[in-house]
Amino acid sequence: MSPVLPLPVTTASRESCEATDVLRLVGEKWTVLVLVILRDGGPSGFNRLDRTVEGLSRRILTRTLRGLEQDGLVSRQITASHVEYAITDLGRSLLPLILAVGEWAVAHAPSIAAARAAYRGDPPA
Questions:
Q1: Is residue 33 part of a domain?
Q2: Does the keyword DNA-binding apply (predicted)?
């Protein structure tokens, strides 16, 4: 199997990698949550999104939505009375992959917790 990145990994090769760019985006704290909310709740105005997620500041919500819109994962529709955000087909196509990682994390949480405990030298439970 050939490596995803040429070795040695340089800063230039890492930064030019499309996967690095997408992983950086989905690794942001609020990105996946906003995508799931828009998928499950349908198109939404900014204020509704703001009220939906406790602990998400308006500034960070704005930044998150702008990033998602910039990458084509969310669309923004401006009307005379408000702005409405919706997940795009591109955003929908990404969600199953992200949710699969979440499902893996839940399924393997006990193994991860045990490995962490063993690493710290905790006695077996």
A1: yes
A2: yes
Which H or E run contains 77?
strand 74-78
Closest CA to 74 of 38, 28, 30, 26: 38
Q: What is the pLDDT of residues 27-43, one digit of tens each?
A: 898 999 999 999 999 99
Q: 107 is written with which tokens?
A: 């399924």
Question: Per residue in 61-88, pLDDT tens?
Answer: 999 999 999 999 999 999 888 899 999 9
CATH number at residue 65: 1.10.10.10
Q: How far is CA 124 from CA 32, 52, 117, in A?
A: 34, 40, 8
Mean pLDDT value across residues 88-116: 95
Residue 86 lies in a domain: yes
Query: What phi, psi does 80 have (nearest 5°)?
Result: -65, -30
Cα angle for residues 27, 4, 100 (degrees, 5° grid):
40
